[in-house]
Design a protein that fits this description.
The structure is a single chain. Helices cover about 35% and strands about 20% of the residues. The protein is an alpha+beta fold. A hairpin with a 4-residue loop joins strand 11 and strand 12.
Length: about 425
Amino acid sequence: MTDRAGRPDGQGDESNDEGNQETAGSGATEQGAHWGPRPARQGPARRPFLRRRWVWWTAAGTTVALVGAGVGAWALYDRLQGNITRDDAVIAELERHEKERPLPSKQGALNILLVGSDTRAGQGNGQYGVARGQRSDTVIMLHLAADRRSATAMSIPRDLMVEIPSCRRADGESTPARTAQFNDAYSYGGTACTIRTVERLTRIRVDHHMVVDFQGFKRMVDAVDGVRICLKQPMDDKDAHVRLPAGEHTLNGEQSLGFVRARKSLGNGSDTDRMERQQQFLGALVAKVQSNGVLLNPGKLYPLLDAATSSLTTDPSLSSLIDLYDLVRSMRNIPTKEVRFLTVPREAYAGDPNRDQLVEPAASELFTLLREDEPVRIAPRPSDSASPAPSASPTGTGPAAPSASSTPSGTPGVRSTPVPDPTFSGNSAARSACE
């Protein structure tokens, strides 16, 4: 008789006895046995268990990785979201004056007021000198076309003489309405007063606003590894904290801030020249962001967003990181040649040659084009002492074009013959920084 293994009856029991004796003994082995580890058990019985264990570890590892990535992503989002300062007080103040405000923009078009504050409050801003209160160092109305195929950035000179409405100060008291230079509005009543002054001047509704201080500007430039500019003459400006020889440079954040703030060391020393330098620099920054693929590269986009949001104060509608990202994403396909920079048409103020006033009807025509979401035609300005730093025509307009308001007509407000749109002096982001 044999058992299932094919052995004679009894051998299996003897093997078991020997095994038991070997286990219980002093470690001696049966004569002729091989030294070394016991051969691994064979057969299909263990395979389902191994497969289950492998699947379990894979699932566990994947779960840990996903949880870790989720926690990391949430931490990054929470940091960026926490950077943004929400400006509820401005919206509350604007709501008090809703009846005097212009109608909202055409569906889809957006007008965003960008304010560069020269406040010395905040970490690091005190090194740029002492200033009483705060004023708007730079104000740009950014118009985004409804189809997101073009963008127009219109600078408003801080020395422009305008009608500033009665504004509420931080202490609750109100300032009287007055004629004063434009950047006084920010010192009188902050962002809300600046927005109301812009809307009264242009009859264009400001849909959103953003205020960025010196530190935020510097960090954004550093986040894209600097911006390339060319100087035709050396620059040495103690007030702006920048000293550069003539030639080509890639400016870091600190140098860039000095470059766009300098007045006395480049060009004719006017605020007009400085604004045009700012526009060209912003154009070079836009081109740098698009050429590096920053908007489509999370690894490069995060440092830029962190820099932008860390010193950003905005209205509640843009205080969400998701809303900001959607806005930036909607702009990523605008060709650089369709990102236009220009300044409100202006000339020397009759009462003070060191101040500006609007040139009419050119200014009104520009405001109407932006208000109606119509294309704005620009003609390049010639280069001056620095590129980006072109000189401006006295009126701020480009080559002469027939004006709609000066064309005779048989019926008031109706043109008798087609008239070309006016052309304004300006540049696009497609223009090389060193042309």
